[in-house]
Amino acid sequence: MAAAPILPGEATADLCDRLGAQARVCHLPWRSYGRLQATSASIACVQAFEDAGPVRALLDTPGRGRILLVDAGGLLRVAVLGERMAQLGLANGWRGVIVHGAVRDVAALAALDFAVLALGAVPQRANPQAPAETRHCALALGGVEISDGDWVALDADGLVFVRAS
Fold first, then answer.
1. pLDDT tens sequence across 44-102
2. 85 domain residue, yes or no
3. How far apart are CA 98 and CA 123, in angstroms?
4. Using CB atoms within 10 A of its CB, is residue 2 exposed (0-12), middle (13-18) or buried (19+)?
5. What pairing do the DSSP bridges indicate for beta strands 39-47 and 151-155?
6. pTM of the entire structure?
7. 47 belongs to a structural domain
8. What is the rounded CA–CA span in Å between residue 49 and residue 69?
9. pLDDT at 21
10. Is 12 in contact with 155 (CB distance < 8 Å)?
11. Structural domain includes residue 10
12. What is the 3-state secondary structure (H, E, C) of the chain?
């Protein structure tokens, strides 16, 4: 595995200054819900439209310190991540989950040492019978193309993605 392109503890603003155009800022209105507010890691990607099953399936595998990036279509109608799945991911070595959609159980998520970012929150759980997911896919979110193995840095200033070298 190649060395991380992001320095440990590096702020997103400093990363942008150091890498210039290689630091790809994701321009979406992310909200932080987990206690872990700043981190960086390699990512795994999944598409899961109104279906929490694919998210649970991946969080039930060894995370190896990665962050799961979930494309839920930007929909805020149902949540694809809640407290139990976040606890599952934490127990399996995932560092966090970024949801292009909604989460729930926000008070409980705030108590977990886990990074959780999403566009919003809603109490309704996702339908487990939705169409199948696509794992290890390339995603396009907020003007940024992202692939499995790319890196993300997140903090109070936002999200920055860096291609894996």
1. 999 988 889 899 999 999 999 999 999 999 999 999 999 999 999 999 999 999 999 99
2. yes
3. 18
4. exposed
5. antiparallel
6. 0.93
7. yes
8. 13
9. 93
10. yes
11. no
12. CCCCCCCCCCCHHHHHHHHHHHCEECCCCCEECCCCCCEEEEEEEEECCCCCHHHHHHHCCCCCCCEEEEECCCCCCCEEECHHHHHHHHHCCCCEEEEEEEECCHHHHCCCCCEEEEEEECCCECCCCCCCCEECCCEEECCEEECCCCEEEEECCEEEEECCC
User: What domain range is 32 assigned to?
Assistant: 22-162
Q: Extract the tokens encoding 129.
A: 């019978």
CATH number at residue 148: 3.50.30.40
Cα separation of 162 and 16, whole Å?
Answer: 10
pLDDT value at position 2?
A: 59
Phi, psi of 123 (to 5 degrees): -75, -20
- Number of structural domains (the chain) is 1
Tokens linked to 79: 């949540």
pLDDT in tens, 97-136: 999 999 999 999 999 999 999 999 999 999 765 455 556 6
